[in-house]
Amino acid sequence: MFKNKLFNMSLIIIISIALLVVVAFFLYQYTFWNVKSVQGNQVKAPSIDEIVPLTVKVPKISTNLGDSTVIVLEMTLQMDNKDAKVEAEKRMFQIQDKVNLLLKNQTAKSFASEEKINQFKVELISRLNKILLEGKVVHVDITQIFLQ
């Protein structure tokens, strides 16, 4: 480009640093955008009258965990819209399959504390949202859990 090698190297370094700054800025904005929007707009929790029409009851599931412990589990799924509720009711056999497969990978220790139960719920929500097309699962409430 230019005949002076020192000038070429310094120009390349300056351009590289400028590109890194731009990329870092956009990554920062992308990463912390949701945090700022949630802090700015305090989200109001939905009332029970808004939640009940969007819930789907999963029938009682009795199965063995990975360590041969028997679990009896009953839960409700809170959906994000009415179309998702209708779809979840139609896909109940798939939902039960996903729950059973997830339970087969768990042990009795996986349900020993509230934190571990919450991890189970997060994983279950993730798996269920992969099969739903019309909406998504927002929250899982375990209404009965029995380990033996």
Automatic annotation (TrEMBL):
Membrane topology (UniProt): Single-pass membrane protein
GO annotations of cellular component type: bacterial-type flagellum basal body; plasma membrane
Keywords: Cell membrane, Cell projection, Chemotaxis, Cilium, Flagellar rotation, Flagellum, Membrane, Transmembrane, Transmembrane helix
Transmembrane intervals: 6-28
Biological processes, Gene Ontology terms: bacterial-type flagellum-dependent swarming motility; chemotaxis
Iron-sulfur keyword on record: no
This protein's record includes keyword Transmembrane: yes
Highest taxon of the lineage: Bacteria
Localization: Cell membrane
Annotated coiled-coil segments of the chain: none
Family: Belongs to the FliL family.
Function: Controls the rotational direction of flagella during chemotaxis.
Designated name of the protein: Flagellar protein FliL
